[in-house]
Amino acid sequence: MGKVVAIASGKGGTGKSTVTAFLARALSEQGRSTLVVEADFGLRSLDLLLGVTQHSLYDCADVLEQRCRISEAAVPVGKMGLWLLSGSNDPDFVPDARQWNSFLQLCRRCYDYTLVDLPGGLGTMVRQSCAAADLTLAVVTPDPVSVRDCAQLSRVLLQNGVESQKLIINQVPKKLKGAIGDLDEVLDGTGIMLQGVVPFSEELQAAALAGRPLLPGKEQTAFSNIAARLCGQTRPLAFR
Ligand SMILES: Nc1ncnc2c1ncn2[C@@H]1O[C@H](COP(=O)(O)OP(=O)(O)OP(=O)(O)O)[C@@H](O)[C@H]1O
Ligand SMILES: [Mg+2]
């Protein structure tokens, strides 16, 4: 059975979709069949971030409502065992919990890893998806507002019985300045165990905007380490 990983954050714009795209590529490069599910309904970004040119007539809502099979709706990204399932175009689409759980169970049967890219905040889709996932990865940036919102996300998820939570600290500048002195303060502030650290990087930003893979470098290493850790291997946490 595959694993479902929900990618969440309290504050919006911390880099969930960017992390989802590069982590999915890293997992597929490590030989794991990987599906990316866009669950930020009404707002599409992952086709651009993954450089998908092929489009399907179907989306996630069509699979949920059994109008098509998952293999008809998910489009391949390159030839590496990576697929994208677009979200519903309807921003008000909220599947009920039972329907969403059985959809994610179907994903577990078809793929080694399913990454669910969520909207920011603490809404129904976020709580429902994290409760149904095997692991929630909370993406935080090292600024005080993001850290506080991430701590609140973690508390709300715990109240909903979501205990399997790990932290990705994204957009870490070479030198941390201001209210957050170091990464330990981010860890203490959120109270979540660390899964990985991703540097702030203009190369990464450019690759994301162009929908192309990362060139070998510290950014690529950061994602392949996070992917390897997800698969149960031991890798160093630092990127420097
Ligand atoms: N490590 C990074 N280095 C530099 N820029 C980054 C990094 N991660 C993300 N970004 C940039 O931050 C911006 C927000 O990223 P992204 O859209 O992935 O965030 P998000 O959390 O998915 O946002 P939303 O909550 O709106 O869905 C983008 O411009 C992206 O290129
Ligand atoms: Mg996003």
Question: Describe it for me?
Answer:
The chain has 240 residues and is α/β, with parallel strands linked by helices. The protein has one domain: P-loop containing nucleotide triphosphate hydrolases (Rossmann fold), CATH 3.40.50.300. 40% of the residues lie in helices and 18% in strands. The protein contains ten helices and eight strands. The chain has an eight-stranded mixed β-sheet with strand order 3-4-2-5-1-6-7-8, with helices on both faces. It is globular, with a radius of gyration of 17 Å. Bound molecules: adenosine-5'-triphosphate and magnesium ion (MG). Adenosine-5'-triphosphate binds next to helix 1, strand 7 and helix 9. The site of magnesium ion (MG) has 5 residues, from helix 1.
User: What would you give as the CATH superfamily?
Assistant: P-loop containing nucleotide triphosphate hydrolases
Q: Round the mean pLDDT to the nearest integer and report it.
A: 93
Using the CA coordinates, give the radius of gyration.
17 Å
- β content, as a range? 15-25%
Please describe the biggest sheet, giving its number of strands, its sense, and whether it closes into a barrel.
Answer: 8 strands, mixed
- Sum up the overall morphology in one term: globular
Unreliable stretches (pLDDT < 50, length at least 5) are none
Q: What is the number of beta strands? A: 8
Kindly, what is the distance between the CA atoms of the first and last residues, rounded to a whole number of angstroms? Answer: 35 Å
Enumerate the distinct ligands.
adenosine-5'-triphosphate, magnesium ion
Number of helices: 10
N-to-C series of helices and strands: EHEHHHEEHEHEHEHEHH
CATH class: Alpha Beta
Task: Identify the CATH architecture.
Answer: 3-Layer(aba) Sandwich
